[in-house]
Amino acid sequence: MTVVDEPLTRLLKQRKLFLTRERSDAAEIVYVCLDDGLPGGYPVGYVIPSRAGTWFAYARARPGRVFANDQVDAGLLNVEEAVRAVLDHARYGDVLFALEQGAGSDTTYTVEVQHVHATWLAALAEPEGITHLGNGRVRFTGPAVAYLRGLPERLGCHVDDEDRLRLAGESYRLVREPQHSGEARPEGGMG
């Protein structure tokens, strides 16, 4: 397997990603895959070397396209730079959303943000499961949080591996709500 540095290995693991390698007579291809519980994982990008000795990076940059990748960078000096380019562009939140929803997750989180951010979050077409509770307080379903985990940091709205919502340069701590065993959901329901 292509060896990558420890910080990149940690980052891949935090994002539930791993690398696989495929060799042919023409080239070595390194795939970046999401651990979806199936053998081989779900590919969210790949990197390939050029004849000049540099690397190309391709990523699933447009959600909803199954196994379709766009070139996101070229001329990269090594495999680590190329994999990082994939991580900077890969969008797989829809896959994480479906996995979490399929698992029957009833986990919810709340966060307090600036009022303008709360309004903006609640108005998003994707993901489903975000409700503005008022006074800057927002509730997220587990699948909605999973979706936001699968967005690249460069988009300015994602959830990191420490359960922090990163939004417009600000960082907000998500608080996991206690499980409600069959009780009616308080204020605002699931949106």
Structure description:
The protein is an alpha+beta fold. The chain is built from five helices and twelve strands. It starts with 5 loop residues before the first helix and ends in a 15-residue tail after the last strand. The model has no long low-confidence stretch (mean pLDDT 88).
**Biggest sheet descriptor:** 5 strands, antiparallel
* Rg value: 18 Å
- Gross geometry: elongated
Number of strands: 12
Widest sheet, order of strands: 1-2-3-4-5
pLDDT < 50 runs, ≥5 residues: none
The topology string of helices and strands comes to HEEEEEHHEHEEHEEEE
Instruction: State the helicity in percent bands.
Output: 10-25%
Structural class: alpha+beta
- The rounded distance between the terminal residues' Cα atoms is 44 Å
Q: Strand percentage, roughly? A: 25-35%
Average pLDDT over all residues? 88
Q: Total number of helical segments? A: 5
Task: Throw out a few tags for this protein.
single chain, 5 helices, alpha+beta, 191 residues, five-stranded antiparallel beta sheet, 25% helix
Concise summary:
The chain is α+β, with helices and mostly antiparallel strands. It is built from five helices and twelve strands. It has helices spanning 6-14, 79-89, 93-102, 115-123, 142-149; strands spanning 17-23, 28-34, 42-49, 55-59, 70-76, 108-112, 130-134, 137-141, 157-159, 164-167, 170-173, 175-176.
